[in-house]
What does this fold into?
Amino acid sequence: MSKKILVLCMAALMAVMAMVAGCGNDNKKAAEGEKVLKVGTNADFAPFEFQGADPSAYEGFDMDLIRAIGEEMGYKVEINNVAFDGLIPSLEAGNIDVIISGMTINEERKQKVLFSDPYYKSGLSIMVAKSDDSIKGFQDLKGKKIAVQIGTTSATEAKKLGSAEVKELNSSADTFIELNAKGVDAVINDRPVNDRYIVESKNDNVKVLPELLTSEDYGMAINKKNADLQTKINEALKKLKDNGKYDQIYAKWFGDKK
Ligand code: GLN
It folds into this structure.
């Protein structure tokens, strides 16, 4: 092989190596560029978060909202299904970046987490057997048995009502089962969750009472050390409210009623 050909070969080889290295860099950049938002939710709270026909495709108002927020921020959204009372510990441990789980903003939780701006107005309502005329509102729960979901505002409030017993169960679905089995006289849950159960289950033996015990705002929770993420989420939420996307998602799950 002549010296010239050898030099040409070397040059070609170096060019190929440079291309490969270039490619490698690009790949690395893409991987680095793909920021992942680790979201924690308790997917047993329709219509906010639940597992439908395909259990891996989490559905609900919160799920659509956080996906839209992730898209707005340029993050890939990864959903992690966690027990409700395990969500804040999971956030504190750094296993997730943000909680969206119909979580009410309150002072007790503010000691542990940062909240986003409010994104949904909720409140607590009561479900009882249709045949039960003894319970017309919260004051009638005195001396009665109540089922609630553990770790929730329903659990906190139920304990203040002078009831005979408060059964703290793992999910709102479990509270409905308990009521149907006549293990309790009433359940307290977030109003939209009780309303949704009536429509979806077609259970004709129960009713939701119109009185609301509280007015609550849902917020996304972020680790106290991550004020930067709180700002980004608030900015994205504001954008979605301004550009109509929030309203679209709202209408999909709740129709026009606000
Ligand atoms: N909003 C209630 C709370 O924050 C219930 C939330 C839930 O069960 N996912 O406690």
About this structure: The domain at 124-208 is CATH 3.40.190.10 (D-Maltodextrin-Binding Protein; domain 2). Residues 42, 45, 84, 101-104, 149, 152-153, 190, 216 surround glutamine (CB under 6 Å).
